[in-house]
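Reopening this ticket.

The earlier resolution said the output was attached, but the attachment link was broken on my side. Pasting everything inline this time so it's all in one place.
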Amino acid sequence: MRPVTLGVLVMFLVLLMFLVLTPSIPAAPAEEPLVKQVGQAIEKGKTYLLGVGKDKGNWEVDTLSATQEGGWTSLALLALLNAGVPPDDPVIQKGLTFLVRIKPKNTYVVGLQTMVLALVDKDNRYKDQIQGNVNWLIEARIKSDGKLLGWGYGAGDNHGSVNNSNTQYVLLGLHEGMNAGATVAPEVLEEIQRFYMRAEPDGGWGYHRGEESTLTMTSAGVCGLLITGMDLNAGREKPLAGGKFENCGKYTENKNVIDGLKWIGNALPAQNRWEQMPSFYYTLYGLERVGRLSGLRFIGTHDWYREGCEALVPLQTKDGSWKGRGFDSSPVVSTSFALLFLSKGRTPILISKLTHKGSEGISSYPEDWNNDHNDARHLVEFTSRELFKRTPMGWQVFNTRMMQGRSVEDLTSELLQSPIAYFNGHYAPEFEGKEKLMLQKYVEEGGFIFAEACCGDERFDAGFRKLMKELFKDAELTRLTKDHPIWHATDKFEVNPGRFELWGIESGCKTVVVYSRRDLSCWWESNRYKKGAKDDPDEMGPAAFALGANIIAYATGLEPPPPRLKVMDVAREDATERKVPPGYLKVAQLRYGEDPPAKRAMPNLMRHLRAKGGLEVDVEPEKTLTITSKGVNDFKFLYMHGKSEIPAKESAELKYLRYDLEKGGGLLLADACCGSKKLDASFREFIAKLFEGKAKLEPIPIGDELFSEELNGPKNAITTVRCRREPASDQRGDGGYKNVEPMLEGVKIGGRWVVIYSKYDIGCALEKIQSSECLGHDHESALRLGSAVVLYALKR
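Inline output:
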């Protein structure tokens, strides 16, 4: 037996304090209070509006609503539907029954009514009414000398009634009507685009033309240009020979949008004074549209969604409503606007589009990252519809220049809210020092990078390859083979590898960087996901969308991203990590031939134990030991992870490991990388050889101490874990994970487990790097199981 040293006694005293003072390792990172507060506010707001609608069958509750019959009901239905209330809910159905009976009369109401019907029209039930509303809105426009002046409050209104508020709701109705299949002539959209390009000299828009610019109307103006630009853009880019596109990066409304966004950013008040804005709730609804349609995380220097949530949540009353002033004075109206802001702005971010500088020689092209404004938008819409069962998802522009003073870890945590970081361009991409470190850490923490040479430009290709060599010095960018799982990451879209050229960088069991030398973004920009387009005889548009869907499926494992505002845990090194006193827990990662796929699994687990439980551990494992090394006797906790077969060894070669486990108090944790069948079969043979046929793996029962509250803390017994036990390529939209009982096996000697083994992956999950084909646990379950094994090893 090894002598009991002072260091060992210290370790057990620390463990005793750990178990008494902090009896449980949290199953998941602590949720940021604001995330929880927003979720609770949404639920309370829904309860309030549902209560009003249940009693009346509509939301026409006050004198003001009678002047715009159906307007309040439309707003409430929009809010409830966007907040997650299903269309077949009885209260929603009552409201729809009331709403569809209202004939076109008031511009506001027709625009809002069209938005509601388009949102619930999944079977063309309201197709004719939507088209009728669209036609009415088009006929109601007011023109002079062939120039569009805008819209008033109803059909036949005179020129003096025209205002930008009515006009924005007309455009919202037309846009959603088109999304539902209604026909709007391009000439109408062009008229509206030209109308909005007549901004005020300061770059904003007022209620009437020539009046002082306001925040509400400037938001409407920016959204008007974004919407018309998006709806008119479908045929703007024309495919040319050699994979290039005519008109790529050319947008006629650019300057007006940029000026309008700048005006809004300057007009927004300090963070703690948002509720003082005029028409606060109406303003927030407009800001949400600006942020969502532009994809901007920041408007000016304002983190618009976070600041809006921080202002909104404290203003909610006990009954779940919000009450404003003036136009917002009706609780139905203000609560509807508040819910629309909170729920639509909270949409999980699937793709973050990275800004970067593109350059050639001495000239700079600061907007080269955004040649295609709608590529990420259209791909996310397609994927959420086709792969995630219409779960609402968003995209965002991620600009580190708007996050001054943030550490690399903080930037990484922000970027990790979306599982995919995407960038492209025509010129060599340029990222600054902190941005490069962020990208490196983003991948280390489980993020996925996708890049593409817009129009197949060779300048971007050369620059991207140089960047990858700088970022990932120990990995090589190699062309993906025809049998790579990315080509068939979903059963729904089979992609012919011969049509595309993808390159990638591997980390462990997953490709973590994927790069396309051939243009995809221009096809996504044109939104040509349907087959049969005359100007796309080779069906490259549908193929590009299919490939994009497969890339997303591979990157995410078909698991939806977290809601916006969730703080993502990031490993943060500190000066004490390398100064662990002798005798504290230190891990040895055993090698048996191959380079371990999950090199950061144990450091991540050890950091978790330090940060969440206060356990003194060395975060860096000993990495030089093999299964035959004499040095294994110096370690109480051993880890083994791989996917290839373990080379055959003679029993005598394993004597040191056998002694450590049988007599030295050691424990071996092992798992099969991504559920590797090769490793699983050879590990069982290895165990038989290790213990000379005297012991074998047996299931660890759910009632074992390893899973108990006594070990893991009150209310933290491990009864279920989230585990993927079959590939995620069946479009479940949940990553293929299921809540199941833990399935661990072990070898018990002298009444204690000396080997604990999982045939399903733990290591890659601890690294947060798993492919959609990886059979194993999710990250939080891997942390729970790994923590339990460490506590068990120390207690014994």
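Reporter confirms the inline version is readable. The CA atoms of residues 706 and 792 lie 6 Å apart. The radius of gyration is 29 Å.
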